[in-house]
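Re: the 147-residue chain
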Amino acid sequence: MLTPMNSQSKYLKPNRFFLAIIFAAVMVLSACTDEEPLDPDTNPRDKFEGSWTVSEETGGQPTGTYPASVTADSGNTSRIRINNIFNLGNSVSLTALVAGNSLDINSQTVSGVVISGNGSFTGSAFILNYTANSGGGPENIKATYTR
Protein backbone atom coordinates (compact mmCIF):
# COMPACT_ATOMS: atom_id res chain seq x y z
CA MET A 1 0.00 0.00 0.00
CA LEU A 2 1.24 3.45 -0.92
CA THR A 3 1.42 6.09 1.71
CA PRO A 4 0.74 9.68 0.80
CA MET A 5 3.72 12.01 0.87
CA ASN A 6 3.65 14.63 3.50
CA SER A 7 3.73 18.23 2.30
CA GLN A 8 7.29 18.81 3.51
CA SER A 9 8.92 15.94 1.54
CA LYS A 10 7.01 16.92 -1.59
CA TYR A 11 8.93 20.22 -1.74
CA LEU A 12 12.34 18.94 -0.66
CA LYS A 13 12.96 16.67 -3.64
CA PRO A 14 12.55 19.35 -6.32
CA ASN A 15 14.71 21.73 -4.26
CA ARG A 16 17.50 19.14 -3.92
CA PHE A 17 17.36 18.53 -7.66
CA PHE A 18 17.50 22.28 -8.35
CA LEU A 19 20.45 22.68 -5.98
CA ALA A 20 22.27 19.81 -7.67
CA ILE A 21 21.81 21.48 -11.06
CA ILE A 22 23.11 24.80 -9.74
CA PHE A 23 26.09 23.10 -8.09
CA ALA A 24 26.97 21.30 -11.35
CA ALA A 25 26.67 24.53 -13.34
CA VAL A 26 28.94 26.40 -10.92
CA MET A 27 31.54 23.62 -11.11
CA VAL A 28 31.51 23.63 -14.92
CA LEU A 29 31.72 27.41 -15.20
CA SER A 30 34.50 27.71 -12.64
CA ALA A 31 36.57 25.22 -14.63
CA CYS A 32 36.51 27.51 -17.68
CA THR A 33 39.56 29.78 -17.56
CA ASP A 34 41.82 31.35 -20.15
CA GLU A 35 44.87 29.26 -20.91
CA GLU A 36 47.06 32.35 -21.19
CA PRO A 37 46.02 35.12 -18.83
CA LEU A 38 46.54 38.67 -20.06
CA ASP A 39 49.48 40.48 -18.55
CA PRO A 40 48.28 43.95 -17.59
CA ASP A 41 51.87 45.24 -17.78
CA THR A 42 52.33 44.26 -21.45
CA ASN A 43 51.08 46.49 -24.24
CA PRO A 44 50.05 44.54 -27.38
CA ARG A 45 51.87 47.03 -29.60
CA ASP A 46 55.26 46.25 -27.98
CA LYS A 47 55.82 43.20 -30.22
CA PHE A 48 55.48 45.38 -33.36
CA GLU A 49 58.05 47.96 -32.28
CA GLY A 50 61.60 47.89 -33.66
CA SER A 51 63.56 47.57 -36.89
CA TRP A 52 62.32 45.27 -39.64
CA THR A 53 63.21 43.97 -43.09
CA VAL A 54 60.21 44.13 -45.39
CA SER A 55 59.64 41.76 -48.32
CA GLU A 56 56.82 42.93 -50.56
CA GLU A 57 54.71 41.15 -53.14
CA THR A 58 52.21 42.54 -55.62
CA GLY A 59 49.88 40.02 -57.22
CA GLY A 60 51.95 37.19 -55.74
CA GLN A 61 55.16 38.44 -57.42
CA PRO A 62 58.09 39.72 -55.31
CA THR A 63 58.60 43.45 -55.80
CA GLY A 64 61.43 44.25 -53.41
CA THR A 65 63.00 44.23 -49.98
CA TYR A 66 63.73 47.28 -47.86
CA PRO A 67 64.22 48.33 -44.20
CA ALA A 68 61.42 49.75 -42.08
CA SER A 69 60.78 50.58 -38.45
CA VAL A 70 57.80 50.64 -36.14
CA THR A 71 57.46 52.96 -33.17
CA ALA A 72 54.81 53.56 -30.53
CA ASP A 73 52.41 56.41 -31.26
CA SER A 74 52.91 58.79 -28.34
CA GLY A 75 49.42 60.20 -28.80
CA ASN A 76 47.53 56.91 -28.44
CA THR A 77 48.52 53.77 -26.48
CA SER A 78 46.68 51.52 -28.98
CA ARG A 79 48.47 52.79 -32.09
CA ILE A 80 51.83 52.32 -33.75
CA ARG A 81 53.62 54.31 -36.45
CA ILE A 82 54.95 52.32 -39.40
CA ASN A 83 57.89 54.13 -41.03
CA ASN A 84 58.91 53.63 -44.66
CA ILE A 85 55.73 51.78 -45.62
CA PHE A 86 55.62 51.00 -49.37
CA ASN A 87 59.30 52.04 -49.40
CA LEU A 88 58.26 55.70 -49.41
CA GLY A 89 61.18 56.80 -47.21
CA ASN A 90 62.21 56.62 -43.56
CA SER A 91 60.66 60.00 -42.80
CA VAL A 92 57.26 58.81 -44.09
CA SER A 93 54.98 57.06 -41.63
CA LEU A 94 51.37 56.16 -41.04
CA THR A 95 49.43 55.00 -38.03
CA ALA A 96 47.91 51.58 -37.37
CA LEU A 97 45.57 50.52 -34.60
CA VAL A 98 46.75 47.45 -32.63
CA ALA A 99 44.38 44.98 -30.94
CA GLY A 100 46.08 41.83 -29.66
CA ASN A 101 47.99 40.32 -32.60
CA SER A 102 46.04 42.26 -35.22
CA LEU A 103 46.41 45.71 -36.65
CA ASP A 104 44.27 47.92 -38.86
CA ILE A 105 45.35 50.72 -41.12
CA ASN A 106 42.51 53.14 -41.75
CA SER A 107 42.71 54.93 -45.10
CA GLN A 108 45.51 57.52 -44.96
CA THR A 109 47.35 59.56 -47.56
CA VAL A 110 51.12 59.57 -47.14
CA SER A 111 53.42 61.17 -49.74
CA GLY A 112 50.50 61.28 -52.18
CA VAL A 113 49.71 57.56 -51.80
CA VAL A 114 46.41 56.43 -50.28
CA ILE A 115 47.03 53.36 -48.10
CA SER A 116 44.62 51.17 -46.12
CA GLY A 117 44.72 47.57 -44.92
CA ASN A 118 45.25 45.17 -42.05
CA GLY A 119 47.78 42.75 -40.67
CA SER A 120 48.62 40.21 -38.03
CA PHE A 121 51.59 39.20 -35.89
CA THR A 122 52.55 35.53 -35.90
CA GLY A 123 55.63 34.03 -34.29
CA SER A 124 58.34 36.68 -34.67
CA ALA A 125 57.04 38.42 -37.81
CA PHE A 126 53.99 40.26 -39.02
CA ILE A 127 52.26 40.47 -42.36
CA LEU A 128 50.49 43.52 -43.73
CA ASN A 129 47.95 43.21 -46.51
CA TYR A 130 47.20 46.67 -47.81
CA THR A 131 46.09 48.64 -50.82
CA ALA A 132 48.26 51.47 -52.13
CA ASN A 133 46.93 53.92 -54.70
CA SER A 134 49.20 56.63 -56.05
CA GLY A 135 46.69 57.73 -58.68
CA GLY A 136 47.16 54.99 -61.26
CA GLY A 137 44.76 52.57 -59.60
CA PRO A 138 45.00 50.47 -56.46
CA GLU A 139 47.78 47.93 -55.94
CA ASN A 140 47.24 45.03 -53.53
CA ILE A 141 50.39 44.58 -51.49
CA LYS A 142 51.47 41.79 -49.16
CA ALA A 143 54.35 42.96 -46.96
CA THR A 144 56.13 40.53 -44.65
CA TYR A 145 58.04 42.16 -41.80
CA THR A 146 60.89 40.07 -40.33
CA ARG A 147 63.74 40.89 -37.95
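The chain has a mean pLDDT of 85.
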